[in-house]
Amino acid sequence: MKKNTVLFASILFLLVFSSLFLSVPVVRAEEPLQVQDPSSEDETAEVQDPLQVQDPVQAQDSFLKIQVAPDQNSVKGGMMFLIHAQVLNSSSDTSVEFWTNSCSYEKHWVTDNAAVFIQSWTCNENTLEQVTLEPGNAYEKNIILYIPKKDKTEPVTFRLGFKRMSENGDVAEPLWSDPVTMNVFVPEEKKEATPPPAAVSQVPDQTSVTPVETNGMPSSAVANPAVPAGSQPLVFQDPGVPIKVSPGKEFSILLVSNPSTGFGWKMTLPTDQKTLTFLGSEYVAPQTTMMGAPGQEVYKFKALISGETKADFVYVRPWEPKVSPTRKIFTILVQEN
Q1: Which long-range contacts link 280-288 to residues 24+ away (Cβ below 8 Å)?
Q2: Can you give 217-257 as a three-state secondary structure string?
Q3: How far apart are CA 88 and CA 67, in angstroms?
């Protein structure tokens, strides 16, 4: 009996020990599942779907192409010129969206040449506008640029860059056009020394010249002291005073103008008038390097026969046809002395 009891206790001990021994591998097999490296999960997720972290704005950059076309290939130093710029959606099946300023859109454009400036202007109202470009469509603007005067004629090369905006006003890095080369020349007359201003103040008044405020800006219509008084050009600026000239006389109408704002003068004459003929016009740039300074537009005429007519001038922006423009109407009386 005693032996049976010992045998039974031995078997029971072996069973308990075996159960404890066999349970250890099960616990160890579960431990690796509880201590998994989280960094391995992130790396796997990034490999599986990299587009989840891509900026949608940058994803559209490859579709946008900047195209530019200057209105001329050469320009006088210190004069402004125009470039027609396009932001083209070159995609065949994807639309592109961005935001722009409604008025001061020139702030979206930059150049990569420090010697080439973009003219800006003051806006009474400026808001953000959304632009949606369907495949093949383009956002188009005319940009006014300016290259300061140089000592010698030489080419100037630059690129034009467009900075699109997001709805919250963030500005992206510029997208660049192909290089543009503008030949900046120095006319021979600009190389000659300009007479000192004191010499002009000593010239006596010419009775045949209507006084004109030149604001420090040159004009071919201003009196030349080297020309006899009877040959001085007639210059008029006040539409409230009738212009009186005799047949055969040439005269000019001078108007302050600032192309950097996008505005320009347009002149019309009655279609059936025969009193005078229009000889042409020219823009005279300001004699200053200050950005956005106004210049002058000079309109030249020649009186033909006795009579009366009117010259109608309006100051407009081409892209604002519905805005009421500034208007100046000059009455012209051609009569024998």
Answers
A1: 282/220, 283/257, 283/259, 284/217, 284/218, 284/219, 284/220, 285/78, 285/79, 285/80, 285/217, 286/215, 286/216, 286/217, 287/216, 287/217, 287/218, 288/216
A2: CCCCCCCCCCCCHHHCCEEECCCCCCEEECCCCEEEEEEEE
A3: 7
CA max distance for the chain: 162
Q: How many CB atoms lie within 10 A of CB 78?
A: 18
pLDDT tens-digit series, residues 262-301: 788 899 999 999 999 999 988 888 776 666 677 889 999 9
Q: Cα angle vertex 273, ends 272, 278, to 5°?
A: 120
Separation between Cα atoms, residue 263 and residue 315, nearest integer Å: 6
**Segment among 119-123, 136-140, 314-318 with least mean pLDDT:** 119-123
DSSP readout, 263-291? -EEEEE--TT--SEEEEEEEEE--SS--T
What integer pLDDT is reported at residue 71 of this predicted model? 79
CA gap 164, 57 in Å, rounded: 10
Convert the pLDDT of each residue in 199-257 to its tens digit: 333 333 333 333 333 333 333 334 444 444 455 578 998 888 899 999 999 999 999 88
Give the closest residue to 255 by CA, choosing from 316, 321, 187, 319.
Answer: 316
End-to-end CA distance of the chain: 162
pLDDT band at 108 (very low <50, low <70, confident <90, very high): confident
Total residues belonging to the chain:
337
Judged against a pLDDT cut of 80, whether residue 56 lies above it is answered with: no
Which tokens sit at 119? 């003219």
- Beta strands per DSSP E along 71-223: 74-76, 80-89, 96-101, 109-111, 117-118, 128-133, 138-146, 154-158, 160-162, 175-176, 180-185
What residue ranges define each of the domains in the chain, with the CATH number in brackets? 56-187 (2.60.40.2360), 209-334 (2.60.40.2020)
Inform me whether the pLDDT recorded for 22 exceeds 50: yes
Percent of the chain with pLDDT strictly greater than 90: 29
